[in-house]
Amino acid sequence: YLGVMPAYSAADDALTTKLVTFYEHLKDSSVPSHQATVLLFDPSNGTLKAVLDGSVITAKRTAAVSAIATKLLMPAFAEVLCILGAGVQAYSHYDIFTELFTFKEVRIWNRTQEKAVRFAAAVGGAVRVCSSAQEAVTGADVIVTVTMATAPILSGAWVKPGAHINAVGASRPDWRELDDELMKNSVLFVDSRDAALTESGDVILSGAEIFAELGEVLKGTKPALPEKTTVFKSLGMAVEDTVAAKFVYDAWSAGN
Predict the structure, then answer these.
(1) In degrees, to the nearest 5, what angle opens at C-alpha 193 toward C-alphas 192 and 198?
(2) pLDDT given at position 83
(3) What protein family does this chain belong to (predicted)?
(4) Which of 24, 48, 77, 167 is 20 to 30 A from 104, comparing alpha carbons?
């Protein structure tokens, strides 16, 4: 796929478009499944101001949004973080989650165990490599799914009541990471209702009801319900790239 994601933020005085290629690698590849470039324009006259590494911005802003959702929705005493998947998003989520939150244990599972072992060796802290998704998930307070799964890899039967799940992979209407039991027995939050109802197989195929957009929780028009089992389905929004690109550009400009 080749995607084009344009957005304008008046509040940030920023106009961008992201070009992203998305290839499903049937075998493990040294090339990431997603590659991207962000173009930043001057909103007053359309001049191209910068070309930015969209892959880094995508990884960072996606993890940042998951962290916001987690801060709002995770249980009060969250001690165990579980990451399913060991690609680019696993690293970016690990980085920000261990910076912002205090977990006593971090677990990882990946379909190819060698990648999980490589992940555990590469990151700064102690990570337990699990031999199955069920082992990784059992008893976890916060779960992050960042896989290329097309069929459910996370079963509701394994999930601790009151846990919070960030579902980041499965960005196609016929792909899934979470099973029906989990989707229907959790309170479902999304970044965009419109996107979730057209792009997320987890939402569409399960028929789960969307409780709120994350923005509604931030604005205070919908409650967070951290005492419940919660799912945040993240698909990504172009405005997130816009805000992140402008932040990077402004920081670079200030240094020059």
Answers:
(1) 100
(2) 98
(3) Belongs to the ornithine cyclodeaminase/mu-crystallin family.
(4) 167
Q: Which two tokens stand for residue 25?
A: 């690698």
Residues β-bridged to residue 210: 188
The CATH class of the 2-56+239-255 domain is alpha beta
**Cβ-contact 175, 200 below 8 angstroms:** no
Percent of the chain with pLDDT over 90: 92
pLDDT, one tens digit per residue, over 219-254 is 999 999 999 999 999 999 999 999 999 999 999 999
Alpha carbon distance 174, 197 (integer Å): 12
Q: Are strands 210-213 and 230-233 parallel, antiparallel or unpaired?
A: unpaired
pTM above 0.90, yes or no: yes
Single-letter amino acid, residue 206? S
SS3 of residue 102 by DSSP: coil
- Give the pLDDT band (50/70/90) at residue 32: confident
User: What are the structure tokens assigned to 127, written together?
Assistant: 């990570």
Whether the Cβ atoms of residue 36 and residue 238 lie closer than 8 Å to each other: no
d(CA 160, CA 52): 40
- In the chain, where are the structural domains located? 2-56+239-255, 58-237
CATH T-level topology, domain 58-237: Rossmann fold (3.40.50)
Q: What is the pLDDT of residues 135-160, one digit of tens each?
A: 999 999 999 999 999 999 999 999 99
Q: How far apart are CA 152 and CA 176, in angstroms?
A: 5
Smallest Cα–Cα separation from 217: which of 88, 62, 70, 8?
70
Contact 140, 162 (CB under 8 A): no
DSSP track, 191-233? S-HHHHHHH-HHHHHHTPPEEEEHHHHHHTSS---TTS-EEEE
Give the per-residue pLDDT at 26. Answer: 67
What are the distances in angstroms from CA 203 to CA 64, 182, 206, 227? 22, 11, 6, 22
